[in-house]
Amino acid sequence: MPMENKIALAKVMKKFPEVTFIWKYESNDTDNFAKGINNIHFSSWVPQTALLADSRLSAFFTHAGLGSINEVSYLGKPVLCPLFADQMRNAKMLVRKLLINGSIEVSKYELHDAKKIGEVLRKILFDDSYRVASENLARQLANQPMEC
C-alpha cells in the first residue's frame, strides 16, 4: 500500500478516538505514519476469525480476499472493501448479497482521500443499517437447509 494511503488512513483513524483500530501490519515502519495515534494497534498476526466473532467489533476493513469475505459473511459484521485486483469480484459479490447496506466499496484510488474514507467509515460505524444487514446475511447463512 502506498505511504500516501497509509497516512490518510491513520489520519482518519485518529479522528475516531472512541474507536480502537487493529491493523494487521507486517512491517516495522508504523511509527513513521502513525506516531502519536493511540487508538491504532499494529500487529503482524491477528486471530481474524476470533476477532470477527467478538461482539465488540463494529466493522471490518478488508482487501476482500475470499477467506475474509466468507468469515465476515458468516459472522455478521459490516465491512469496508477497498477494491484491488482480483478481489473486486469478491467485494462486489458481498455488496450485492448485503443489498448495499452491509458493505461499502471504496476504490483503491480513493484511499489517499482522508475526507472520503472518513465519510464511509463514519457511515459504517454509526449507521445501524449496515450492522442489521450484515447480521441478516449471517442469519440466512446459518439457517441453510443441510443435506443428509
TrEMBL record:
One GO term describing the cellular component: membrane
Which membrane topology describes this protein?
Single-pass membrane protein
Keyword line: Glycosyltransferase, Membrane, Signal, Transferase, Transmembrane, Transmembrane helix
| EC number from the UniProt entry | 2.4.1.17
Q: Where in the cell is it found?
A: Membrane
InterPro entries assigned = UDP-glycosyltransferase (IPR050271), UDP_glucos_trans (IPR002213)
Gene Ontology molecular function: any one:
glucuronosyltransferase activity
Highest rank taxon of the organism: Eukaryota
Catalytic activity as recorded in UniProt: glucuronate acceptor + UDP-alpha-D-glucuronate = acceptor beta-D-glucuronoside + UDP + H(+)
Pfam families listed in its UniProt record: UDPGT
Q: What class of enzyme is it?
A: transferase
Family, per entry: Belongs to the UDP-glycosyltransferase family.
Q: Which PANTHER family match?
A: EG:EG0003.4 PROTEIN-RELATED (PTHR48043), UDP-GLUCURONOSYLTRANSFERASE (PTHR48043:SF23)
This chain's protein is named glucuronosyltransferase
| Organism of derivation | Caenorhabditis briggsae
